[in-house]
Specification:
This protein is mainly α. It has eleven helices and two strands; from the N terminus they run αααββαααααααα.
Amino acid sequence: MKRQPTNAGRLETVVNGMEKRILQGVYTPGERLPGESSLQTEWGVSRSVVREAMKMLASRGLLDIQQGRGTFVSESTETPLRDQLAITLQRSSRGETNWADLLEVRHVLEVEVAGRAAGRASETALDEMCAAVAEMRSHPDQPKGYVDADLRFHRALAEATGNPLWIALLNSLNDLLRQYREEGFRGKASALHAADQHEQILCAVEQGDAAAARQAMQCHLQRSQQDIKTKSS
């Protein structure tokens, strides 16, 4: 006699099947999924199994469950990683954010991103970085406006690599990077100097000089580290 799958087995089948469809683009970002009744019929499972499967997929960042509206394919998949990174950083330092740990990760991630972007950047990405530098120069005494432009530059730099994993990794650090930059903001003179450093990175990327791009980013991060140490002391 053939054994029937257990609820756990049915749940695994639905989760794996739905995940595969999302990753393969059968369901696209922002698309609303069929209703619970349709999914029950399609997968041959109970309503409770469908609901549990949706919760599991949402916890993985693949779905966005909106009360009263339905369940949608997430347009961003970095949220769970972003939250986990923030929690890990705070736990490791007993509730305080350890900027030294974040900076070490930035040195590994962003220096390499700058190098990879050199020679790969499209005109669109270069234009976006150029616009971000101009925006930084127009808000040197406004922390929020300046930080918004700073984040815009680094996001465009990651996008210039053409590698979605670099983009996702940087996006997952976005909230921490915003907090870091706001705490390290030292006013107009420092902001304009940082804008110059960003322009040096841009020039190296535009010229396709990976070594110069890495070096320019390294110098920028070292200056950023000095700024936050000075402000904290």
